[in-house]
């Protein structure tokens, strides 16, 4: 990192000229930054957003757009799903850890209904339609789906299943244009602009500026090769995203993710985390990662997933991000999908948002023994896996992994195998430890004066597991908190 | 953490009285601190060690005493084992990651032979005897054994197997009295004292002291309720051990290890890491953990280990710490041992350092089907696992996990099962990122002036995997480096 500029804080008394000034300065104009800007401005602060690219949106506008919400949102109710904050909390506690921040999860669940209404009030559109089939996203523009394995083992028995993946209505399915992420961000940015939030683009932060009491009072940034100094009279909000594209940080914290970033953008270089660490900020769960698995969930649910020993290891009808995490973290990134012809035909007849993942199998065989041999698995391994699976499947049960009855069918012949080794990617979930007001905490435990953060530069509601929508969810939720808290600071 | 004292640095210009002064001030008198003290003193520095307990030793003197060394040490040669630094490096790179610090591993392997000779020169005794059976430690006072799975799959095919667990000769087997750890530490402390190293006990560090250039020039500590200020003219060496006993840090970084510390001491509260983080120090691999598995390796090698699905998941003849890591990290801490009567009798006839782990089985049965049912495993799972294992074992092979032929025997009847769920514990391996001179690195990438660290408050040669002896190994090796580097600083 010696070629990169220092992230050590600068001293305010050494700054002679302030190029920009505002009450609240926000670094990053993705979902956390936009929500912080709106709330800070509404609270009466003069707000300036610094964005390193040429436009707003961040990773959010490139994403699918899921926001993880529940507890009885208007959309859940309209579609006939019952949920409570307590029920949502049970699921999130069980599925997103280990090590979840219990206070943050509780707070998030309690505020979830209001947060949905707030998003709607800013103009984010949600279509009253439910997508109930396996998938990374709905096949069309439905507004609600299961996005975390809520209705699969083991969580279906821990909390009452309720879909919580809330998806802004897309205007077409091309992600990055008017996909769900764009349709989330556009209204938020429009709202911010209409309120008078100022934004400067092509400015990337490099260091924080502190006064003699170590209070954060601004940022040093770079614009077209020039250093600029930005004064923040009330506070600085870091909303700069993950460290998925910082190779040194990935090596130091999440080596399994090395060279496999996904669902992220190159600007996610961890700068927000590092400038705060330079002030003694506490970090948490730096090894946690969302894991994408490049496969069609419509196929996975209808087959069996086996590891390099030919053993089943994950409920196939769960959220495919869980399949990805189990594969990368617990199976050394080695996995195979096995399906018979009938199941494959059924899968191919379904709709899916990821039909491009429907690749032909690597192996096709007339018998399990033949497939096992072709796949190079030790003799007897896949055969006994299928034998045990079929024995129970004939009775519609799966005592090994408790796949739901609707997906449990004996595997016949002919059958095929897909090589899904190294088929994962992901982004990082670890980051700055923040309190419920999005204040950045020092390793001493108390907040760093003048410094706030939200989004994927913080450790949020996910500390181990993941559900689609939790990143835009806690980013937007705690982005709002950051904006409010920073604006409430006295000058 | 709000009740704990702040770890924010103090400013030197605010200190009016220095209670102690030395060229090099070392926090912690375990193995890293002792080695740092010896080298700093020999390099001409006036050295003061601050130890928070009433006596020297730290976790090292309570430990088994293994030091992981190789590349052709005098002891390896005397016992007929061939090894080279390159071969050792191949093993360590494969076994201790992912994400190993390649430069540190290379450096450590290159210096390993010299480091062994140095330990001998300080008076650490090693008996020229090899223990070749499975075990956590030798059954007697042998000086060398395999301690990382070097001679098991998959490493036996990656690097030429060589034992590298070097064990100081115990005077009796009671750990903490004259066990291996004591016999390592006693000569080191005697050497330090004979050189004139000063030590003050019952002093615990609380904060670092920095000058106007943010250079570390001392520590604030506490002794019997009083604050004391200690000036370090050349440098401060942090050698305060792991964070195994800091519950908040475990929650934030290694939640799987919550409430299960082992092979550690309560003083390991992460203070060295936190005072350096308050200065912007970089940390690395905070999720990594050594995992102890409370079981007799003589039994494990002779049986099969299965997970909660009745599936084998780890080569049973490997280092039992690897079995523990695989169990805790990849099998949700759920594992069972299955052995037939003949194998159990053979195991019980062996010598072992942990005969107290030889508990009676939880289940005994006449057939595999009966055992499977008694253990509550889904029908067919354990039966097919044993069936596939036996089919290959009859030919002396184990294509599933490549257990060595000598341990592969068909499982007959009667047989028994041991419930090894929640049978793990461990200590943390993550910590401060240091360079090859043990300088603590800032998140900017450059060293923090005046600050050095070694031992388990640093991220060392292990970033994911583990081998017995690597902690005392890199603690002593980089402790020496820290002492030399600190002493070489100009006043």
Write structural notes for this entry.
The structure is a homodimer of 491-residue chains. By secondary structure, chain A is an alpha/beta fold. The first copy, chain A, has 2 domains: 361 residues, FAD/NAD(P)-binding domain, CATH 3.50.50; 128 residues, Succinate dehydrogenase/fumarate reductase flavoprotein, catalytic domain (Flavocytochrome C3, Chain A, domain 1). Helices cover 29% and strands 19% of the residues of chain A. In chain A, strands 1, 2, 3, 8, 9, 10, 11, 20 and 21 form a 9-stranded mixed beta sheet that branches. Chain A has a 4-stranded mixed beta sheet with strand order 4-7-6-5. In chain A, strand 2, helix 1 and strand 3 form a beta-alpha-beta unit. In chain A, helix 1 runs parallel beside helix 7 and helix 1 packs parallel to helix 15. Chain A starts with 9 loop residues before the first strand and ends with a helix. At the A-B interface, helix 8, strand 12 and helix 14 of A face helix 7, strand 12 and helix 13 of B.
Layout of helices and strands:
2 copies of one chain form a homodimer.
Chain A: E1 10-11, E2 20-27, H1 31-42, E3 47-51, H2 58-62, E4 67-68, H3 74-78, H4 85-95, H5 102-110, H6 112-121, E5 130-131, E6 144-145, E7 165-166, H7 180-195, E8 198-201, E9 204-210, E10 216-223, E11 226-238, H8 247-253, H9 271-277, E12 283-284, E13 289-293, H10 297-300, E14 304-306, H11 320-330, E15 336-340, H12 341-348, E16 363-365, H13 368-374, H14 381-393, E17 415-419, E18 424-428, E19 431-432, E20 439-441, E21 447-453, H15 470-488
Parallel strand pairs in A: 1-9, 2-3, 2-11, 3-8, 5-6, 11-21
Antiparallel strand pairs in A: 4-7, 6-7, 9-10, 10-11, 12-19, 13-18, 14-15, 15-17, 16-17, 20-21
Helix pairs in contact in A: 1-7, 1-15, 4-5, 13-14
